[in-house]
Structure formats: structure tokens, C-alpha cells
Backbone:
């Protein structure tokens, strides 16, 4: 496995219910337990799913035309039952509008293929969620 394939995020508690994540490139993101308007881990999961596909679709379509509207909405249902907490019924909705003209026509015609390619092959986040992968946990002193 190539060294550039490894990813890392370090999470530090900043106060009760509040945390800061720092990625390997030095970017930071604050999140919390839902007591405030900060994103929760579930919000971040939904944002990661939508964001990953948004980037893929953006790259493909904006080669043809700059969108007049580009919104991606991710929905899901949080379930708490004997199987544990999880998200179900995840859906990603794309709302894109391109200008009139050849470039806009090209972007509109490419859109379904771009969404399909992101979902079926390119988006690491949704592919990981759909295929499933083990999550190992460790406790270090």
C-alpha cells in the first residue's frame, strides 16, 4: 500500500461535549455532542457522504459549464434498537442547474453518468459505508 493512501484524524476534547479534529494536513474542524448547533458525528457522516459525491460530480460537470445552482442534500433515519444505534435509509439528492447553451447542455447530459460513477466507484465515503468495513478499536496508555 502506498504511503499516501494512509489517512489520519486526531480528535481532542476541548471541553465537555466539544471536540476538535485535526487532519494530517493540519486542517481543523470543531464538532460536538448535539447540545449546541455544532455538527455532531452523525452530521459529519452525512456531510462526508454528500461532500464526497459533490466533489466528484463537480469535477465532471464543471469542465463543461459553471453551475448556476449546486446543492447536495443527504438524508437518513437514525435508528436505535436492539441491534444498536445506526443510520438507515440514506439518500443523496442532487439539485444542479446549468446555464443555457452548449456547455450547460453538455453538463446536464453528463450529470446522470457523473452521479452514477461517483456512487458506484469513485466516492470513497459512500463506497465504504455501502460495502462495510471493520472498525478496530484500541486503548493505549
Residues:
Amino acid at each position: 500500500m502506498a504511503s499516501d493512501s494512509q489517512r489520519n484524524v486526531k480528535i481532542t476534547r476541548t471541553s465537555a461535549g466539544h471536540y476538535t479534529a485535526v487532519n494530517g494536513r493540519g486542517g481543523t474542524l470543531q464538532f460536538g455532542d448535539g447540545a449546541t448547533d455544532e455538527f455532531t458525528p452523525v452530521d459529519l457522516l452525512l456531510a462526508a457522504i454528500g461532500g464526497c459525491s459533490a466533489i466528484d460530480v463537480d469535477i465532471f460537470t464543471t469542465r463543461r459549464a459553471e453551475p448556476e445552482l449546486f446543492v447536495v442534500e443527504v438524508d437518513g433515519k437514525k435508528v436505535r434498537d436492539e441491534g444498536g444505534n445506526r443510520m438507515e435509509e440514506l439518500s443523496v439528492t442532487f439539485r444542479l442547474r446549468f446555464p443555457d447553451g452548449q456547455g450547460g447542455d453538455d453538463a446536464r447530459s453528463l450529470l446522470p453518468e457523473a452521479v452514477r460513477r461517483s456512487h458506484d466507484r469513485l466516492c470513497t465515503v459512500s463506497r465504504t459505508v455501502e460495502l462495510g468495513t471493520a472498525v478496530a478499536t484500541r486503548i493505549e496508555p
Q: What stands out?
A: The mean pLDDT is 95. Residues 64 and 103 are 5 Å apart (CA to CA). The chain is about 35% helix and 30% strand. The first strand starts at residue 9 and ends at 15.
